[in-house]
Amino acid sequence: MYKIGVIGDHDTVLSFKSTGIETFPAVDEKEAADRLMKLVRENYAVIFITEQLAEKVRERIDLYRDKMLPIITLIPSNRGTLGIGISDVRKSVEKAIGVDIIFEREGRE
Question: Signal peptide location in the record (predicted)?
Fold first, then answer.
């Protein structure tokens, strides 16, 4: 069975606890990067990470960008969104089908 985890500030990950998703609070870049690597080693299939922390560990996340698993999804924190999560989704959709269906623009080359 695949495991799902979420990395982020305490208040944000706390909201996931009631859904049964394993939560991993992180306060800084080092803690987030270490936790991300540990979840990958433990074969988590889906890892949610807040945009604020993801921005700081982008290089580590990019190591898994072209792999099937884990799926690393950026989510807004309780402080709001930076817009990079939806931007990543838009890029992935545009790469997959060649058209930006989220903002309804044709793909660029």
Answer: none
